[in-house]
Amino acid sequence: MQLTQYTDYSLRTLIYLGLRREGLSTITEISDSYGISRNHLVKVVHQLGAQGLIVTVRGKGGGIRLASSPDEINVGDVVRRFENLALVECFSDSNTCAISPSCRLRGVLQEAMRGFMEVLDRYTLQDLLVGKKKMKGLLSLAD
Fold this sequence. Notes:
By secondary structure, this protein is mostly helical.
């Protein structure tokens, strides 16, 4: 399975904010640190805020920060919020596949997805921050 760029950027933003627990960060800082599109990140940050994962502060001196502690943000939950987990047509209500009534593919893919999500559910944002001193250096963040 490949996560969308949107989910990737969402996770990267949460990691960045987890590394910068003190104070506020800006979208520009995050996009510059990762070398990713600021315009795309604006949409990601908006959705992270709408999902209650981050807090946005408007105005001069504003920015964004995590809405809760990194150990309270589950990786599997984030992926579920941002990914369409209906891998194939037979997962949807509008399934028109002619072989669906006798095809075993759906069950196999559901089992694989459960395994994938079970692994992600075992981790929190805090788990992703291990080695944060090195990550901060790679993102040019002061310690």
